[in-house]
Design brief:
Elements: H1 21-35, E1 48-53, H2 59-70, E2 74-78, H3 91-98, E3 104-108, H4 112-121, E4 126-128, H5 136-150, E5 158-161, H6 166-178, E6 182-185, H7 194-203, E7 210-213, E8 224-227, H8 239-245, H9 253-257, E9 263-266, H10 278-281, H11 288-306
Parallel strand pairs: 1-2, 1-3, 3-4, 5-6, 5-8, 6-7, 8-9
Helix pairs in contact: 1-5, 1-11, 2-11, 3-4, 5-6, 5-11, 6-7
The protein binds phosphoric acid mono(formamide)ester and norvaline.
């Protein structure tokens, strides 16, 4: 059960670190409860949510739209061609207008700085649906999936192999908050930025369990191996350069065999044949579709707490 007035009510969720460890735990617990069918409240009854997309989306858009409907709310989805943030009007002006119509905003923007500007100008709560810097909603679903499939996070050893991108950054924050070991294996020059590591370390100075490596052999003892595309949305022109830089970092059967029993994770969409082979993503250890499915429950739990009506 969520308390009648959640401590998260009205807050923004731009990064995993906008929650403290107890609040993150509460969101995950509610997500599990919703999935188990033991919570069927409709805290978004009479509420309307705007969704802004500057980049393409499948999972995020559909899971938010379905989740909002299941919570009793309604939604308007605006794509790149509608609002044209920064082209037809400034991010701030768009936020101040939306604020007068809706009860919450879900935004997938090209830059994290624009998201911060949007959230600063909007009084209504804003949820990050992915930026160049982070993808916190994906990580909520991933944590939920890991708990379902592998048990308590503290007993796991997550190894992320690939680009030190938005997914890696949000995983790092989650590791700092919930205290699970996380290793990021990337080619030289493609690790998460030092500022990302430094900021996460401030969340948990005493038990910071993030390590970096350039050696794929370090996947040994992993309980989960996670990867993502090598060139994220907005980096399409780097695809060839990155394909070469990451060639040794493909998650294939040989790499999975180096960590017997490890599950395979990917936020999707995948570039099959690049960062992961068909054999692995379609294999027995793959939990990628569970991750995608859990976006629904994780975001319902988050929205119930941030956007829900006070009772
Ligand atoms: N994983 C994820 O966010 O997928 P979409 O880009 O399709 O929303
Ligand atoms: N890193 C990817 C994640 C897509 C869900 C991107 O930003 O394109």
């Amino acid at each position: 059960m969520i308390p009648s007035v959640s401590a998260l009510m009205g807050r923004d969720f731009l990064d995993v670190a906008n929650l403290d460890a107890a609040e993150l735990r509460e969101v995950l617990d509610l997500a599990h409860t919703i999935k188990a069918g033991r919570w069927a409240e409709r805290p978004l009854e009479g509420r309307h949510v705007a969704m802004l997309f500057q980049k393409p989306s499948h999972r995020t858009r559909v899971s938010f739209e379905v989740g909002i409907a299941r919570l009793g709310g309604t939604t308007t989805t605006l794509t790149e061609h509608d609002v044209q943030l920064g082209v037809r009007e400034t991010v701030g002006d768009a936020a101040r207008v939306l604020d007068r119509y809706v009860d919450g905003i879900v935004a997938r923007l090209r830059t994290h700085d624009d998201l911060i500007e949007l959230a600063a100008a909007a009084e209504k709560p804003v949820i990050n649906a992915l930026t160049d810097r982070s993808h916190p909603c994906q990580i909520l679903a991933d944590l939920m999936t890991l708990e379902e499939r592998c048990g308590p996070l503290g007993k796991q050893r997550i190894v992320y192999v690939g680009d030190g991108n938005n997914i890696a950054a949000s995983l790092i924050e989650a590791s700092a908050l919930l205290e699970f070991p996380l290793m990021v294996i990337a080619p030289p020059g493609y690790h998460p930025k030092q500022a990302v590591i430094d900021r996460a370390r401030t969340l948990n100075v005493g038990r910071f369990m993030v390590t970096l490596s350039t050696d794929v052999a370090d996947v040994a003892k992993a309980t989960a191996i996670y990867t993502d595309i090598w060139a994220s949305m907005g980096q399409e022109n780097e695809r060839e350069v990155r394909r070469k830089a990451f060639a040794e970092y493909q998650v294939n059967q040989a790499l999975m065999d180096a960590a017997p029993g490890a599950v395979f994770m990917h936020c999707l969409p995948a570039h099959r044949g690049e960062e992961v082979t068909d054999e692995v993503i379609d294999g027995r250890q793959s939990i990628v579709f569970e991750q995608a499915g859990n976006r629904l429950y994780a975001q319902m739990a988050l929205m119930a707490q941030l956007f829900g009506a006070e009772k």
